[in-house]
UniProtKB/TrEMBL annotation:
This is Site-specific integrase. It comes from Anoxybacteroides rupiense. The keyword Protein biosynthesis does not apply. Keywords: DNA recombination, DNA-binding. Coiled coil: none annotated.
């Protein structure tokens, strides 16, 4: 729906829209000053209208910016100027200012879509989507809803294939995996609208197919020596170190996700059978892991000598008051980063460094040792509960050989 306005008129419309969206006064002043320079540049080039080419030339001449900001990462010092140029292009193309920041909790649903959004969210909860998965799904959907609102769409039945097509144009510069996720979210939501009679037409059929198949990148893994260095860098004489050591062992040796570690309760530790029973947050499957010897002693050391006195049912809690469970959005990323720095390991920028990288390392190690794929999938929680029996029968016995002896535990209590 591109409508070309003279550049002065386009800037005026953008500034008015920023005011309507309640952007901060200082932010709008910054945009206004920046656009004065863009208008002056356009006049120097004898251009009466804004274009992407004009925007790129402006950034290159005034900021020495030569990156293709639709495909490459934006340099730190140039994010502001690039964002302002993209706002002009977005408004000229779509008639709206597209927010490109991550939604924060407390999103206010536009009133014309509130009923169906609430109903959709409720259906997702009834389908037992994980909290994290539902939050991510809704955040993707809110961008689309914001776009509809700014296009002055007054009800779901007013959505047209053309509007869907225009919105998809705004995401084409994203990574293939992100595009696939957004398109899937749109299809599912539009199908929900049709099946629940919010729309007369099944608009999910109008969401374009991705022309390129996504090949997932090779996961980041650590070599054995680096994992040992990370673990050895932990001060296990310190209460926080005792906790962090137990957490990193659970990830590195059992492949637990951060969410499962946060939700692990004291009652999940079965010392009699030497097992840990985990109901995975992501899959909702219940998986049983063995308490390996080093993991067992690390847990005992933490529980006896480091864990603050607390009524919390969770195994791992904060080490500073209030002594409660980790926050729902905590990903424990800071824990592994702390010990990567202390160990002196140099990590390249393109290598993922979170707890998930230890899960990938475990999978890679098991694969090298000839572990069957169904067992690896079960350890990482990628298959349904039917695969649990495969893991218990083929992998458990070998791991039990390293399991802690309850009698030995009692002798040392």
């Amino acid at each position: 729906m591109e409508t070309r306005f003279p550049i002065e008129e386009l800037v005026s419309k953008v500034l008015s829209e920023l005011e309507r969206l309640n952007y901060a006064y200082n932010t709008i002043c910054g945009y206004r000053a920046f656009y004065k320079r863009v208008i002056a540049f356009a006049k120097e080039k004898n251009e009466g209208y804004f274009s992407e080419a004009l925007g790129r030339d402006f950034l290159q001449e005034k900021y020495n910016c030569t990156v293709d900001y639709y495909k490459e990462a934006m340099p730190k010092g140039l994010k502001g100027p690039i964002r302002r140029i993209r706002v002009l292009g977005d408004y000229q193309l779509h008639g709206v200012i597209i927010r490109r920041i991550v939604k924060k909790p407390g999103y206010v649903k536009p009133p014309q879509f509130e009923t169906e959004l609430t109903a959709y969210e409720k259906e997702c909860e009834n389908n037992e989507y994980s909290k994290r998965g539902l939050r991510t799904r809704m955040q993707r959907l809110f961008f689309f809803i914001d776009y509809l609102d700014r296009r002055k769409v007054q009800k779901s039945n007013d959505i047209t294939p053309e509007i869907i097509s225009d919105y998809v144009k705004t995401i084409y510069k994203y990574h293939e995996k992100s595009i696939a996720s957004i398109l899937t979210t749109l299809r599912v939501y539009l199908r929900f609208l049709y099946f629940n009679q919010y729309t007369d037409e099944d608009l999910s059929l109008k969401v374009p197919q991705q022309s390129k198949y996504y090949y997932p990148p090779v996961p980041s893994v650590w070599n054995k020596e680096d994992v040992i260095r990370i673990l050895e860098s932990i001060d296990r004489g310190n209460p926080t170190g005792k906790r962090d050591y137990a957490i990193l062992l659970l990830v590195a040796k059992l492949g637990l996700r951060a969410g499962d570690i946060k939700s692990l309760e004291l009652s999940d530790l079965n010392w009699h059978s030497k097992t840990i029973e985990v109901r995975q947050n992501k899959t909702k499957n219940t998986v049983t892991y063995p308490i390996l010897k080093d993991i067992g002693w690390a847990l005992i050391d933490y529980l006896k000598n480091a864990r603050p006195i607390s009524n919390s049912p969770f195994v791992f809690i904060r080490m500073n008051a209030p002594y409660e469970a980790f926050g729902k959005d905590a990903n424990l990323h800071n824990i592994i980063m702390k010990y990567i720095r202390l160990s002196g390991i140099t990590v390249s920028h393109d290598k993922k460094q979170g707890l998930h990288s230890l899960r990938h390392t475990l999978a890679s190690t098991l694969l090298e040792q000839g572990t069957p794929l169904p067992v690896i999938s079960e350890v990482l929680g990628h298959f349904n509960s039917k695969s649990t029996s495969v893991y218990l029968h083929t992998g458990m016995e070998g791991l039990r050989k390293c399991a802690i002896d309850p009698e030995e535990v009692l002798k040392n209590v």
